[in-house]
Amino acid sequence: MVMHIAQSRSGIGERLDDILARTRSELDRGLVPVNIFANADIFDAEMERIFAKSWVFLGFESEIPDKGDFMQRRIGRDSVIVTRDTKNDIHVLANFCRHRGTRLCQTDVGNQSHFRCPYHGWVFRNNGDWIGAPDKSKAYKALDPKNWGLLKAPHVESFLGMIFASLDPDAPALMDYLGGAAWFMRGLMDLHPAGMSPMGPPDRYKVRGDWKTGSENFGGDGYHVGVAHGSVQTIELAQGFDVLNNFSTHYVIPGGHSFLGHDFDSMFGPDGHVWYYPPDIQQHFDLDRLDPLLQDVVKKNPPIVGTVFPNLSFLRFFGPPSPGKPPAVYTSWRQWQPTGPGEMELWSWQLKWDFMDEQQASDSYAAGQFGFSSAGIFEQDDTVVWEGAPEAARSVWARKENIAFNMQMGMEGMGQQKLDESWEGPGEAWRPGPGEPSQRAFYQHWLSQMAETSQ
Amino acid sequence: MSAITPAVEYAIRQFLGREAMLLDNGRLDDWVNLLDEGILYEIPLRISARKQEDQFPKGAFRMHEDMAMIRKRLERMGTSENWAEDPASRTVRTVGSIFVEEDEGGGIFRVHSALSLYRQRALDRAYEWIPARRIDRIRIEASGECRLVRRTIILAETILQTPNLAVFL
Predict the structure, then answer these.
(1) What CATH number should be reported for the domain holding residue B66?
(2) Does the distance separating the beta carbons of A387 and B50 come in below 8 Å?
(3) Which residues are CB-contacts of A442 (< 8 A; sequence separation ≥ 6)?
């Protein structure tokens, strides 16, 4: 009897349910078993129980501005086509022909009213409808087009110009799914009625790290900055890394979402207000668009990173577009696209405010790409340190010893972090750092999604 | 404008060969001396599209850097916290298909080349391969020395298979 075939498959006593059960018992102590970072069964279950159920980010409406525009994107490992039809409605379609599975779309973007399969010529409208095939009357007289359209995401919704879809017919509305995360997203993107849009398509690069590591890190890992990114402070392109955690707030939102705020005024002086945006940008903001509590957060403790479950994160920080020039604030949207156990593609967009002039936009783009991109002086170090978890997960030794990673920072008896009982916003606010409440909450939610459908 | 003489072509070939040697040997301080102070080093973002011209969305880039940025990168590489390249990747740059297209005046020539960059990081057994085309502007000074004035790097890949661009192309 052959029980353990592929090395990335689970070892003895490591069936999916065993790993999940162990994760449940370890997580209460702030520990995360190493097994979940490069296990094929875990990965397959994540695709079914998380990516085929959650609301997944697909891109921005402004990336497909005209009727007929489309872009190829991903839901988990599935390729999907995001289209804008003749009625301006947005659809999310599975990128394969219903006849024999041939890929219909081989490009990242384009403009087409319909997709014609290159194999036998079945044709689909860009809303997914089956509209024909060669020799239709001789070949498919009785075929019901209603049954043979492209697979279509049952739920597609937009929020602040961002397109999300869920493959779960029973999914809650997007706003219910986002919950308190939507409030924080407004604080980030709704400071001006015209909002934000990406400057170009995503920068994409393969990282040999697990998608969860990216989500968890950007959800609230202020602790790695001084070490993993220490070089950026050493070369004097950033400051305050040593005190960062003393001024941080972990906003932990039900649903696996989280945001990491920082007291900019205390860190950078009175100009720190509102992410350190310079006056020529801030003059366009209308903070009255936000409720008073959110205004207060934006002014005093704005989040510099955050994660919307499962795999969308953002970063807003500042740096010079070129050393010696005044700093520009940049906003990077990033998605951790799972490609296999312990492997992902990192997709990164730099966003601009619609009101920005060309110089403001290009300064923000240059500063953002210099820091966070395939060549980014911050990001390139993340891409290497994140390679470790899947390697450890593949280690027989680590699994034999039941190794779990430590996420106990800030727990009772560990440090100075406390739940702010006076917090009236969504979720919980834990301050100050260092701490890892966001990471623990992320994995708790991950576990709840993984376990829910397995029973 | 003048004809592209064998002497010009020879100088450019020697320049590109020397540059690859310096980068492969980690002699970054010598390499940076080959760059003009006004250098633009850029990697446009590339996507999959039907038409060649649609593959490079206007204004989108992975890198778009001047001398100050390049010098900062070198400074970063000199710290003890350069985790992306700790230790430096072992690289072999093969530069070929050199085509000196045009004398643009002012001693500046437009030069096309293909770069095949083999990169093995740290303890890795597997390697990464970064194939690219380059369009350079190279100035031949009165002394006969060459300077790189502009480099446009056209990556073959739309989704980069190496995790970062911590090496110069």
Answers:
(1) 3.10.450.50
(2) no
(3) A212, A215, A216, A219, A256, A258, A307, A309
Q: Cβ distance B114 to B102 under 8 Å?
A: no
Give residue limits of the domains in chain A.
56-174, 180-452
Structure tokens at A60: 């921005």
In a domain, B164, yes or no: no
Mean pLDDT, each 10-residue run in order, chain A (455 residues) = 42 78 95 95 97 98 98 98 98 98 97 97 98 96 97 98 98 98 98 97 97 98 96 93 92 98 90 92 97 96 97 97 96 98 98 98 98 97 96 94 96 94 98 96 98 62
* Predicted pLDDT at A13: 53
Query: Class assignment of domain A180-452?
Result: alpha beta
ipTM score: 0.96
Closest-CA distance, A162 to chain B, in angstroms, reads: 20
Tell me if chain B has a CB within 8 Å of the CB of A206: yes
Tokens of A317: 């920080």
With contacts defined as CB-CB under 8 Å, which chain B residues touch A323?
68-69, 71-72
Task: Find, among A411, A245, A261, A446, the residue nearest to A336 by Cα.
Answer: A446
Q: What is the model's pLDDT at position A273?
A: 87
The CATH H-level (homologous superfamily) assignment of domain A56-174 is Rieske [2Fe-2S] iron-sulphur domain (2.102.10.10)
Nearest-CA distance from B58 to chain A in Å?
8
Which range marks the domain in which residue B35 is found? 6-155
Chain B residues whose beta carbon lies within 8 Å of the beta carbon of residue A238: none
Is B74 an interface residue toward A (CB < 8 Å)? no
Count of domains in chain B?
Answer: 1
The tokens for B93 are 């740059």
